[in-house]
Amino acid sequence: MTDRRKDRIYAENLDKVDDFVFDRRVAEVFPDMIKRSVPGYSTVIAMTGVLAGEYVQNNSRIYDLGCSLGASSFAVLEGIKARECELLAIDNSEEMLKQAQSNLALQTTETRVKLICEDVINTQINNASLVILNFTLQFIDLEQRLELLKKIHTGLRPGGILILSEKIAFADPVAQALQIEMHHAFKRANGYNDLEISQKRSALEKVLIPETLEQHYRRLKQAGFARADLWFQCFNFVSLVARK
Ligand SMILES: C[S@@+](CC[C@H](N)C(=O)[O-])C[C@H]1O[C@@H](n2cnc3c(N)ncnc32)[C@H](O)[C@@H]1O
């Protein structure tokens, strides 16, 4: 019997590879897909909880932008214990949110979380002590990224932070080729074959636009952040903490 939750989406040879979308098929296998595709994903999620424990202020809001099935939100809840705050978990994919809702329903006692289906470009951000963009900014139109970061900066309280995790690109073509090679080796080690890797790559080509670390630092500064520090890197995947 095949495991329904195992990602086999690109295992068959496709005549035409459509652009990647967060639809029902992806929602069903997402935990397996992201764990086998993003090196260090579990560490980034676990440390999101640790950082929440450090920076979330009482009577403030937490925004998990592009929350998918809620992994970062659940880590935050672990990290903040009984602290009084509101956690807004936002995604524009109804299918992803449906799964997030059923995961949340299993935690019947949690009343601090609100799941919202909307484009993060339209999300109002205020009274925030923590904003999370874990592997989401890379899917936002390039022209809208600065506007989104400015809005996040404005909505943060003094002492608040943004966690920004992304797939990155490298300006040096040799570094770029080597990092992609290592990332593909990671995927192969996790059971994806060359056909799956290559079809997924085509599907994401126009949808996931990675930028260099320098571009991220520059934009965060332009958006008003006092500083941004790299706290995690594994191959071409990084996480930064940006401070108001
Ligand atoms: C790679 S997943 C994020 C993973 C998730 N943060 C986690 O740590 O498990 C990207 C998510 O961003 C959502 N997304 C992409 N663009 C969005 C937008 N403009 N507004 C809201 N959500 C968006 C997608 O639906 C998807 O669920």
Overview of the molecule:
The longest helix is centred in the C-terminal third of the chain and has 17 residues, at 173-189. This protein has eight helices and eight strands; from the N terminus they run ααβαβαββαβααβαββ. The model has no long low-confidence stretch (mean pLDDT 96). The protein has a domain at 41-169 and 207-243: 3-Layer(aba) Sandwich (Rossmann fold), CATH 3.40.50.150. It has helices at residues 24-37, 41-55, 71-80, 94-106, 142-155, 173-189, 194-204, 213-222, and strands spanning 60-65, 85-91, 113-117, 128-134, 156-169, 211-212, 227-234, 237-243. A hairpin with a 2-residue loop joins strand 7 and strand 8. It is globular and about 50 Å long. Strands 1, 2, 3, 4, 5, 6, 7 and 8 form an eight-stranded mixed β-sheet that branches. Helix content is 43%, strand content 23%. The protein has 244 residues and is of the alpha/beta class. Helix 2 runs parallel beside helix 3 (71-80). The structure holds S-adenosylmethionine. S-adenosylmethionine is lined by residues 22, 34, 45, 66-68, 71-72, 90-93, 96, 119-121, 134-136, 139-140. S-adenosylmethionine binds next to helix 3 and strand 2.
